Amino acid sequence: MTRASGFTLLEVMVAIVLASIVVLVAYAAAQVSFDVHARLGGALRAQQGARATRELLQDALRNARRAPQAPEDTTFVLQDGRLSFVAAGAGPPFDPDYDWRITIEPDSSGLALVAVPVGRAPAAEVAFRLPGVTRWGVQVLAPDEPRWVREWPATPTMPRAIAITLWNRAEPVGPPLQLVLTTNATPTPGDLDVP
Questions:
Q1: At 14, which helix (H) or strand (E)?
Q2: pTM for this prediction
Q3: What is the DSSP code (8-state) at residue 91?
Q4: pLDDT in tens, the chain (195 residues)
Q5: Is 111 a domain residue?
Q6: Measuring CA to CA, how many Å separate 7 from each of 15, 19, 20, 173?
Q7: Of 181, 185, 175, 176, which is closest to residue 161 (Cα–Cα)?
Q8: Which of 54, 107, 133, 162 has the fewest C-beta atoms under 10 angstroms from its C-beta?
Q9: Structural domain span for residue 103
Q10: Residues 26, 147 contacting (CB under 8 angstroms)
């Protein structure tokens, strides 16, 4: 008696089950890969946005005007978490031909930056949200004292230094940004320790 060549029903069913398992494992691996790619892409965009935000703030604060252009001008004000200062335009998005009054304050959608040209400039406003930032903490160093304060009144005097911590919900966005604003009273290394 000769046996017919071919597969039994049991062999076919086992092959189908094994092929199904291989396909499910491959699909799961592909799905994990796509999810990781999407999460890494989102994290990269957040990091790039945070870096751009820090660079923009740093450039604007480095160009902050130390002296008012007119007697009634105030160059630097920090009240209720709202920072306003006059800076020379250092490049995009601020035209370098003009001075700009820059105001940064938290609102319901995060942190908003509004800049308006000062003086003879055309009435154009630059406004946008700082990407990836939901809130911030700002402190300034008083000129004659080694203490950090959260309020700076509208006076012609500039603080010695500023420390800004950006937050995305409960997570800090990079290290705090610390910048010396005036050179007439150089802070000692211990002065820049933010509490």
A1: helix 9-62
A2: 0.72
A3: B
A4: 666 677 888 999 999 999 999 999 999 999 999 999 998 988 787 778 777 878 888 999 998 887 666 655 667 899 999 999 988 887 778 888 888 899 999 887 888 999 988 877 676 788 888 877 888 999 999 888 888 999 999 887 889 999 999 888 888 888 889 999 876 555 555 555 665
A5: yes
A6: 10, 16, 18, 62
A7: 181
A8: 107
A9: 51-192
A10: no
Domain tally for the chain? 1
- β partners of residue 15: none
Q: CA distances (Å), 180 to each of 64, 77, 164, 173, 177, in order?
A: 11, 16, 12, 20, 10
C-alpha distances (whole Å) from 168 to each of 110, 154, 185 are 9, 29, 33
Q: How far apart are CA 106 and CA 104, in angstroms?
A: 7
- Provide the 10 A C-beta neighbour count for residue 133: 23
Q: Is residue 4 part of a domain?
A: no
Give the C-alpha separation, 150 to 178, whole Å. 14
End-to-end Cα separation, the chain, in angstroms: 93
Provide DSSP, 30-74. Answer: HHHHHHHHHHHHHHHHHHHHHHHHHHHHHHHHHTB-SS-SSTT--
Give a yes or no: residue 87 inside a domain: yes
Cα distances (angstroms) measured from residue 12 to each of 16, 18, 60, 164: 6, 10, 71, 67
The token pair that represents 62 in the structure block: 């480095």
